[in-house]
Amino acid sequence: MKISTTDLFSAYQTNDLYCELFGNVARALRPDTEAVISRLSALDPERLKERARDAERELYNLGITFTVYTQKDVIDRILPFDVLPRVIDAQDWQTINEGVVQRVSAINHFLHDIYHEGHILKDGIIPAELVLGNSNYRPEMEGLTVPYGTYAHISGIDIVRGEDGRFRVLEDNARTPSGVSYVVENRHLMQRAFPDLMEGMGIQPVSNYGQKLHEALVDVAPPHIPEPQVVLLSPGSYNSAYFEHIFLAREMGVPLVEGRDLTVENDRVYMKTISGQRPVDVIYRRLNDDFLDPQVFNPDSLLGCPGLMTAYAKGNVTLANAVGTGVADDKAVYAYMPRIISYYLDQDPILDNVETHICREREGLQYTLDHLEELVIKPVGEAGGYGITVGPKASPEELEACRANLQDNPANYISQPMINLSVCPTLTDEGIAPRHVDLRPFAVTGRDTWVLPGGLTRVALRKGSIIVNSSQGGGSKDTWVLQATQDSQP
């Protein structure tokens, strides 16, 4: 289906997919999105391409990169940036915001429960072996109380929209979700490159993320400390997200440290400085549980700090996110999130899950094997888009390999129907074309939960691809959440 408009979008076709800018052709455009379309339509296509090239050069010059270790010839890459923004109106954002807050609340209730009374396991709402046998379950957290019951201080909830226009949650990220630096830097880039496009549009700001994150981390510091010292713990410069670590430390105004910069004495964590040791009260850690403390987890780890878990268990330091939160973003546990929300909050989910078949269960495995060519099969322990088999796009050989893997280790897989993800107008070599997108809003939780207005819009730049991950050729867009107008009030 062809969009009836002129100029920049004159040849733009949605191919009957839901478009994040134009919506469904069957419905009238909302007044606030009409204003954006009008201004975008007036852009000169050739000038747009020039400004896009300038923007990509700026990204590289600023060092806004990530590392892909699987590509031997390319180490540092910029995250490709598309200059046509993804627009979210006020009504849609209200739904997303409330749904994310609800989900994060349920996740924190769930994590507290499984490490304490375990009511949800005793009541059979979720199989006990799925939790207690999970590789991310940490017995060291049993009985350990964390401030305000907040385990997932920083959460990234991956959301997609299908052909029906409804938002659904695709994945939960409750360990060390990444990508928020691109949200803020994309906005800064757009403000420099397209001030004329953004002026007067009523776009909600994102530049206060560092302040909000710092406030939340101070909230959860050990009690009776007047000015808690927060630090960001990084694995170091060889980590793929090191740019983000630098960015977030700078935005919060806190030291960026590595494990070798920390020491534990008398169950208290200290940071080594040129003027002596300084106490540390809150650690925003960007390394996995296994590497935090060689005395408790991986004894060969050089990235963490010996004695850290003892200080943590005694309440002398707060770790964000808490140890053991990985259980909550396991892809098999994800399938039970609607039940988890109902169990703890006595509410229906505001944002539904994508339908999910758990292959560790006999019915789920059989359904997946019977409908292999129709489904997307995902390993529960992988991230970054690796290990996924997209049934409708897979070759016969790939389907047979997937079938063998499922039969060999069914507990390692889930399957979901292939969703025709919504699209956004995207600048390509062939002109403006639809490309599939998802959205990762970031929630920050201390005493309460605040959601950054917008989030990371990832875009599958390859024609026909639904894999939006940066490691798989995806890029990003600036995400504009429009402020409510009188016409858009519910």
From TrEMBL:
Residues 85-460 form the Circularly permuted ATP-grasp type domain. Pfam families: CP_ATPgrasp_2. InterPro entries: ATP-dep_Glu-Cys_Ligase-2 (IPR051680), CP_ATPgrasp_2 (IPR025841), UCP005522 (IPR016450). It comes from the Bacteria. Residues 471-490 are annotated as: Disordered. Transmembrane segments: none annotated. This is Circularly permuted type 2 ATP-grasp protein.
